[in-house]
Design goal:
single chain, mainly alpha, Amidase signature (AS) enzymes, 7 helices, about 40% helix
Length: about 190
């Protein structure tokens, strides 16, 4: 598994080509959580909108995936608390049950580089100078993603101030290569 594939499986970063999702909720639920993190963003979005999978089930699957792989790769940093994320997912499910759909990212876990402020999350830019900074507002990009229904789970690692070709910084350390987690690049 390469780093790009790991991140795409750990986070919903963009829409790909859709494939028909003909599974019933029962059949789909029987194959969770692994199948959820394998879905492309558009298929996952449709599955959530059509109630084939709940936002809570999606969040649980992604949290389990991150818990399994992130200790090896260190790609996700500044994680929000799991209980808070699950509550946000429950809220997203409740909104759906009332017919309130916010957009294609409704209830989907998402992370942005630790170079963008996201309200309530650490915003270090990979620098010890800002190691304890908590964003009080969303960047324009994060606000648009949130308006489309995204649930921000944390940040992805970055070189200090985004300067560099490898994701090492003195706050969170290095992100390992999927080919060899002991290296930051190959």
């Amino acid at each position: 598994m390469n780093r790009r594939r790991f991140i795409s499986r750990s986070l919903v970063l963009g829409a790909g080509l859709s494939t028909p999702l003909a599974l019933t909720r029962t059949a789909f639920a029987a194959s969770m959580p692994a199948d959820i993190v394998e879905m492309d963003a558009l298929s996952l979005s449709r599955a959530i909108e059509e109630s084939q999978v709940s936002c809570v089930e999606v969040m649980q699957a992604y949290l389990a995936h991150i818990e399994r792989y992130n200790p090896v790769y260190n790609a996700i940093v500044g994680m929000a608390e799991a209980d808070d994320l699950l509550q946000q997912a429950r809220n997203a499910d409740a909104e759906l049950s009332r017919g309130e759909y916010h957009g294609w990212m409704h209830g989907m876990p998402h992370a942005v580089k630790d170079l963008q402020p996201v309200a309530g999350l650490r915003y270090t830019s990979g620098s010890p100078i800002f190691a304890d900074r908590i964003a009080d507002r969303d960047s324009g990009m994060a606000a648009k993603l949130r308006a489309a229904g995204a649930i921000f789970i944390g940040k992805t690692n970055t070189p200090e101030f985004g300067l560099g070709s490898q994701s090492y910084n003195p706050v969170y350390g290095a992100t390992g290569s999927a080919w060899n987690p002991d290296l930051t690049a190959i």
